[in-house]
Amino acid sequence: MLALKLLLVAVSVLLSTLAARRFGHAAGGAVAGMPMIAAPIVAVLLVDLEASQVRAIALGTLVCVPAAIAHIVAFAHAARRFRWPAGLALALGVYLATALALTQAALPPAAACALALAAPGLGLWAAPASTHAPGAVDVPRAEFVLRIAAAVAMALVIVLGADHLPAAVSGVLLAVPITGSVLPCFTLPRHGPEATVSLLGGFVRGLHGFAAFFVALYAALGAAGKLAAFMLALAAAFAMAALVQWLRRRAAQ
């Protein structure tokens, strides 16, 4: 499972960087925010575990979605004031504090699902508005390698660290938005704060699909088989992404 997660982290960074290279920073962020890492891992878990166990994992992930949004919003605001090391430290601090508070709150499942679905919209409201013009991004090949290496290294540290910590803390660590931490650290020094704000805004929009995936998975596993639940979750993620994109275009008009 460790090798699979590291591979998926690398693929996620690669695809999001390719999207940014072709369509702009916001598109790269949106791709990174979708459940590209989570969905294949869930598929493996559905084969290895009982449906009730995967359902519990889905609920635990949903509890941490608002914390991931807080991380992205904090990094977006910090990008206009600080360099990337301070921005990353601040964002991770906000994430850990928010995630630990949410896990200790023991929210009812319905409340956790509702909060996870609402969090991306609240994040877009709280995040700074980007003034960066959309367009293709120049990302040198060497930076591709560095982005992937940094993301894989961060994922490895998180997974290995989680093995030696209490269960509640381990769950929080495993939900850290890795691509949402690594990509801004490369975007900010090379392309500036406005490009970074655009990237992170796209990431929040992508998290609409992430939240929809896990809400649908949690609900469907209680009423349907594993395969049907997984397919419904994928459909929900893509439907939500399409809806967010449509609403964005309508707002721009």
Give a quick precis of the structure.
This protein has about 250 residues and is an all-alpha fold. The protein is about 85% helix and about 0% strand.
Helix/strand layout:
Elements: H1 2-23, H2 25-33, H3 38-48, H4 51-79, H5 84-105, H6 109-126, H7 141-162, H8 167-174, H9 178-191, H10 193-221, H11 226-252
Helix pairs in contact: 1-2, 1-7, 2-10, 3-11, 4-5, 4-6, 4-9, 4-10, 5-8, 5-9, 6-10, 7-8, 7-9, 9-10, 10-11
Number of helices: 11
Low-pLDDT regions: none
Main sheet, how many strands, which sense, barrel?
none
Write down the domain tally: 1
Rg, Å, rounded? 17 Å
Mean pLDDT: 85
Describe this protein with a few key phrases.
253 residues; mainly alpha; 11 helices; 0% strand; globular
Structure, explained:
- It is built from eleven helices and no strands.
- The chain is globular and about 45 Å long.
- It has helices spanning 2-23, 25-33, 38-48, 51-79, 84-105, 109-126, 141-162, 167-174, 178-191, 193-221, 226-252.
- With 253 residues, it is mainly α.
- The protein has one domain.
